[in-house]
Design a protein that fits this description.
Elements lengths: L1 E2 L2 E2 H26 L1 H11 L9 H27 L4 H26 L3 H20 L3
Antiparallel strand pairs: 1-2
Length: about 140
């Protein structure tokens, strides 16, 4: 089946890559451009958790993971639009990095006992994993 000249499978891949690209690029770049504000927020958020002393180290890690997931997804999107075979594997890599980012964030939220924050990540994780699986086809 086709829609707008694209197969439904390809459209699904494009939408997943676009969503992942927007989600993680914005989140990562927000941490880059508002680093101190985010760092202060996370230090306060984790001040009573076992991660309190590691926030300064973990902040650049999650920033790099999120930004990499987003940019890789957007590159995959572009390659898919241009019809390159590498688009599938690049977009899948973006989905994998996104999944890793979300697992790290989920872990942090659970350790901080922010159960509502952890629960809010679940739909993003499910979306990312569905996209990840989709690239196998």
């Amino acid at each position: 089946m086709e829609l707008f000249g694209f197969s439904v499978l390809l459209l699904s891949k494009l939408f997943f890559a676009a969503f992942n690209g927007i989600l993680f690029t914005q989140s990562g770049l927000d941490k880059v451009f508002h680093y101190q504000g985010n760092l202060d927020y996370f230090k306060d958020h984790f001040k009573k958790s076992p991660l309190a002393s590691t926030v300064g180290l973990l902040m650049p890690v999650i920033t790099l993971l999120e930004t990499s997931a987003g940019v890789t997804s957007l590159v995959g999107l572009l390659l898919l639009l241009l019809g390159h075979d590498a688009g599938n594997s690049v977009a899948a890599t973006g989905m994998g990095l996104g999944g890793l980012s979300l697992v790290c964030l989920f872990f942090g939220q659970r350790i901080a006992q922010d159960y509502a924050g952890a629960a809010a990540l679940v739909p993003y994780f499910l979306m990312t994993m569905a996209g990840f699986v989709l690239y196998a086809f």
